[in-house]
C-alpha cells in the first residue's frame, strides 16, 4: 500500500485533471429527482441509491442497497489492508423543489453557471445538500484508487435516503448493523465552510429536546364579560410560564437546565473571539441588531455552545378577524431546547416539565405531548484525528480551519457515538449562500473541486 | 289620568286574566325568524319590526319603522298627558339557530313545555333574548291601557333589529333622533334575575376596550438551530408582556390602569357579601375552583365592579402537527379590558399601549390594531327611580331585588347617557339556565307572567 507524500501529490494532480469527468458523474446523480418526502418519487430515490451502488462497485467497493421500511440505505466497503477504517456518512435524498417557478433553471438539470462575480456554480437541487458533498468524498476515493490502487485508510460508506424526511429508519439500521459499520472514526460531509476562504471543522452539534405543552383551565370556552377577572385564563398561565423561563440577563432560570453543560475551553473561546462574528454581521441581515441571549456570552457561544429554550409555536383562543371576548379553555405551546455537551435530553425534559407543573394553578392542569430528544455531539478539541484533518485542510486552503460549533442538530451523529462508539469528524464545503432547501440551490465549483482535494488529503492524513 | 293603587290592582288582575292572549301574541312574534346576522333573513327581520309597529299602533301608540343602512328600528310614542316620559329599549332580532339538530322542538315554533320539575317554559329562539322580555313591557302597557285608558307615565319605545350583530346603526340613529327619543329615564329589558326567586336591578355594566397587538422581530422566520439563543423570539416578547400585566396578587400592574376606578359603596359591598356567590357555586360548574383575579376582592366584585385585562387569543409560529424548529418573525395577541365606573377607554388604551411599548426590545417593533372601546355604565345607587323600581319589584316578588353589576357590556346604554342624557334602569327576568344563544332557548312562564306584572308595577311606581 502506497500512501506517501509523493502519492498524495499525484492524487491531487489526478483530481485536477479529472475534474470534468467528476462533474459529469455528479450531474448524472443530480439528474435523479430523489425527493424523499414525496411518495411519488419513491422509485427515483431507489434509482439514486442504485446509481451510487453501481458507481461504488466500479471503484472496487463491495456495495449494496439495504432495504428499510422507507427508502433504502447504500452501504459500501473497501478491503485493501490499510491499517485503519473510517465510516463516511452522507445522504442521497433531496428536498422538494417548490415553488418551481422561482427556479431560473430546471432543478434536476444541473448547470455550470458563471455568476456575476465570475465564480462558477453548480446549480441544481441537491448540489450542496448533499449530493455534491458526498461526491467530493467519492471522487477523492476514486483518485486514490486510480493513482495508488488502494485507499490510505479503509472506507465504509453509509448513504441514506431519508435525511430530509427525518432519518426515521436510520437509527434501527445502525443498531442492527454494528459489525458491518465498525470503524475508528465517522466522517460526515453535511456541514459548511466558515466563509469562502476559510475551511471549518464542526466540533459540536447541539442536541434537541422538543415538547408540546397544553394548559387546560375551564372545561369550556367562557364569556369574558361573565367570567373575566374570576376564571383562570390559560393564555395568561402559559405566558407566565414562558416569561419565567428567561431572566433579565437572558439566562434560562429552570433549575437543573444547565446541569452537565461543559464550558468551552479558553483557547477555543479565544479563537472564536477572533472570528469576527458581530451582532451587525450576524443579525443585521435578518433585520435585528441586539443579541437576545445570555448577556455575558459571545454571540458565537449563544448560537453554538450554549443550550437554549425557544417557543416555536403558541396558540389559543380566538384568532380570526375582529374581536371575540372569549376566555379559552386551553392554550398550547410548542417548545424546543437546543442542547450542548453532556446534557441529557430526558433530564432536560424532566426539569422543564417540573418547572412548568410548578406554575400551573391548582384548579388547572397541564398535558405534555412529545418530549423527544437527541443528545448534543461534541468532538474533543484535542483529538489526534482532528489535528490531522485540520492540517490537511490548512494545506489545501492555505488557511487553518476554524473549529466551530454548529447550532443545529444532526441527530444521527449521536447514534454513531452511542451505537458504534465512533467520534465524528464533520467537514463540509457548502457556503452560507448555497440556498439549501430553497430554489436555485447551488454549490460553488471551488467547493466541489477543493472539496475533493481536501478529502484526498484528509484520507492521507488519517493514515499517518 | 288614573294611576291610583286601585288601578294597579285591576291592571294586575287583567294581566293574570289575559295571560293566554299575551302568550298568543308572543308566540306570533317568536314565529318570525328575525336572524339579523344572516342576510337570508333580511325580509323576516323587517316583518318582525312591522309586526311590532302594528301591535303598538293597536295599543294607541304612534309607531313607525325607521330605515337604517341595516335592519329598521321600531319607534313608538304614547301621548296621554302623563307627567313624565320614559324610553324603553329592547331588540327584536335573534341569534342564528345552528346547530339545528340539537333543538328538541323547531326553534321558530314556540311551545309551552312542562319541565321535569313541573315548571312551564316557553321554548323558542328569542324567547328570553329578547322577544319574551320586550313583550313583558308591551303587555304591561296593554293592561294599563285596557284598565285605565292611559299609561301612568308616557312611554317611547325603541326596538332595534341589530343587537345580535353589533348594533352598528343604532348610535347614529340615536344621535339623529334626540328629540323624538327625549325622556327622563331609559328602561332596558335585556338582563336577568339574580335567581328564580330574586329579582335584580343591574346598576352597572362594564365597558370594553379591545386591541390586537402584533410584535415584529426578525424580518423573516428563522431556523432555531442557526439563530436560537441570539435572535429575539416574538413569542417570548409577547409572553413577557402578558405575564407582566398581572402581579402575584392578580392586580393589573399597568400604570394608570386603575385611574378613575370608583370604589363600590360599603353598603353595596355588604349587600353583595350576602348574595352567597362562592367559588364553588360560580366556578364549580365550569370545572374551576380558585378565583384568578385580585386576591383582596370578593368574587362578585371581580366579575362586576372591577376592571380586567384578558387575552382572548394569542398565536405565532408553527401550530401544525409535530415539531418545526422555527423562530417566527411575528406574534399576535388579541386583548380586551372590561372597564368600570369612570374609566375612559381611550385612556386605558393609551396606558396599555405605553406599557407594551416599554417592553418591546430595541430592535423589534409593535403594531396596534383596533383600540376601540365603550365606557362602563353605572347608575347611581341612590337615585329615586331606582328606589321606586326596587319597591315595585319587591312588591311583586315578595323579596327585595338585588342591585347587581353585570360583567358584560351593553354599549348602547352608554349612548343613552351620552346622546340623550338618560340614565338607564336595567330590569330583566331571564335566568342563568335560559340557554340564550344556544339550542333550546327558553323563557320561564313565570318570568313572562311576573315580568309583565313587574313592569305594570314599575310604570305605576315611576309616576308617583
From TrEMBL, chains A, B:
<keyword id="KW-0378">Hydrolase</keyword>
<dbReference type="InterPro" id="IPR002933">
    <property type="entry name" value="Peptidase_M20"/>
</dbReference>
<dbReference type="Pfam" id="PF01546">
    <property type="entry name" value="Peptidase_M20"/>
</dbReference>
<feature type="domain" description="Peptidase M20 dimerisation">
    <location>
        <begin position="204"/>
        <end position="362"/>
    </location>
</feature>
<keyword id="KW-0645">Protease</keyword>
<dbReference type="InterPro" id="IPR051458">
    <property type="entry name" value="Cyt/Met_Dipeptidase"/>
</dbReference>
<keyword id="KW-0479">Metal-binding</keyword>
<dbReference type="InterPro" id="IPR011650">
    <property type="entry name" value="Peptidase_M20_dimer"/>
</dbReference>
<protein>
    <submittedName>
        <fullName>M20/M25/M40 family metallo-hydrolase</fullName>
    </submittedName>
</protein>
<dbReference type="Pfam" id="PF07687">
    <property type="entry name" value="M20_dimer"/>
</dbReference>
